[in-house]
Known about the structure:
The complex is a heterodimer of chains A (55) and B (413). By secondary structure, chain A is mainly β. Helix content of chain A is 15%, strand content 44%. In chain A, strand 1 (3-11) and strand 2 (18-24) form a beta hairpin. Chain A starts with a strand and ends with a strand. By secondary structure, chain B is mainly β. Chain B is 2% helix and 38% strand. Chain B is built from 1 helix and 24 strands. In chain B, strands 20-19-23-16-17-22-21 form a 7-stranded antiparallel sheet, with no helix packed on it. In chain B, a hairpin with a 2-residue loop joins strand 1 and strand 2 (39-43). Chain A binds chain B through residues 2, 9, 12, 14-15, 17, 19, 21, 24, 28-34, 36-40, and chain B through 77, 344-350, 368-373, 382.
Amino acid sequence: MTILRYELIYTNPETNKKIYAKIDSDGKSYSSCSEDNKDFKEWKENGGTVIEEAD
Amino acid sequence: MSTLNVDKVDPSTGTALEIGTSGDTITVPSGATFVVAGTTEITGTNNVQRPNAKPLIINGNCAISQRSTSVAGVGDGDTGFHTLDRWRFSEGGTPSTEFTMSQSTDVPSGYGFSNSLKMDCTTADASLNASDSMMLQQRFEGQNLQLLKKGTSNAEKITVAFWVKSTVTGTYILELQDSDNIRNISKTYTISSADTWEKKVVNFDGDTTGALGNDNGNSFEINWWLQSGTDFATGSLQTSWGARTTDARATGQVNTGSSTSNDFLFTAVQLEVGEYTSATLPPFQHESFGDNLARCQRYFTQFGKNQGVTVGSSKTYGMGITNNDDLNSFVHIAFPTTMRTIPTSITQTGVASDYNIRAVSTDACTGVPTFHSATPDAIILGFVNSVHSFGSGVVIRGQTNADDSFIGVDIEL
């Protein structure tokens, strides 16, 4: 399944880490991660779309 | 020194045979072999004997497949883990070949194995792009391979052994990569008969350059090439350790994706320290299913549906408490084994109603579970329900609400 985008869900108030939902090409989310996730960081560094509207 | 040349030393019945006395050195010459009851036990090659240690390869018998037992359409963009634990599919370029990757029951008979990893070509590409590559990998933490003494003058030779069955006969490439120092070595093995199980024993020199990091990161990988475009295959194959030379990594590799009739399977994978032949190779170390699973769970743990087995609805993942936002309930789940490092993500079914929260009554979730925080020993998830009327600070249970319900935690290499 191709990754479409990451969307901010909220910021964990205990760790101050942003939590993202990964949205796949069918528009559904099958996973979520913190901002420390390796795949998320690589996606972002490669110019992937991150929606930061929430929170 | 005198030499005793006899065919047999036969002590009196019931008498123990002694050789030498305290302080003596008993030398077994290189190449000599002890045989016990017809089974080769020891060959004098200074190989590292690890009779009571766990195998260095994890899930070498392909018994553990927590995520799924079969996934179709594995190809471009699908680098990662799909079925069997610890066995990673890796691709590069823009390959159009696709495989169904599965846990198969096709095994070499008579050796005690029940499963193999199967790559069944479902979309063929007989004309690869130059940059196309596909391989199967196992990756290793550097701290688990310090016994290789890599990067020292005492670097150990390495033997990789496995059973393999492939439709395409010819030359295949098995590659070792030191991922800390980007140093590689490749060797060939040959499939002689189509669709027939064959055992391969492949030897590699030790590498006196480049130490492996003594930590929990990815330091080393073994690569079974499935196909290679010309970018990886125009140079003379890199059969000695050295800085990675891209065009010499897989020269000669056949294309297992050339036809939808093609299958490629392997099992009984061993990584041994030292140089062994098919006659001297230590026997495969069969683990219990539980031991094998526990070692896999250091890298990936799946709660709920696992290996195709469902637990059913209203089964508890863990205990939690409702937040004061009338939306999230934070559920704590302990891992069955300490994970490799701190997890940073979870996977789930993608269907909110596959999950429940339960207090005095049960409410289906209105959003899918989300990652919240974790340690190597436990994780906290957000179970999402925007309509519950439990109030804040109420103890709840996070539950399954469908046969397919699962939560996966992946911290693979």
